[in-house]
Design goal:
Layout (H helix, E strand, L loop, with lengths): L6 E7 L2 E13 L3 E4 L3 E4 L3 E7 L2 E6 L3 E7 L1
Antiparallel strand pairs: 1-2, 1-7, 2-3, 3-4, 5-6, 6-7
Length: about 70
Amino acid sequence: MDLKNLKVKAIILPHGEYRLGVPVPVIDEGSFYRIDGTHIIDKHKIKKIGEADDRVKIEMTDKTVVLEVVR
């Protein structure tokens, strides 16, 4: 799945949740994805990406990240 075609409304991490004021695009920076200028997802740590409705679940080697998205 190509994350750079999505706009993120919220980032749900194991330790907290970040609600963004407006949906922002996922920026592909080569070896990582950047969301809202500060949130980084390392591509090398991604094991699996799944979709369900308006959520994208990213299973990584060290944590699971859920993105609430608009298409």
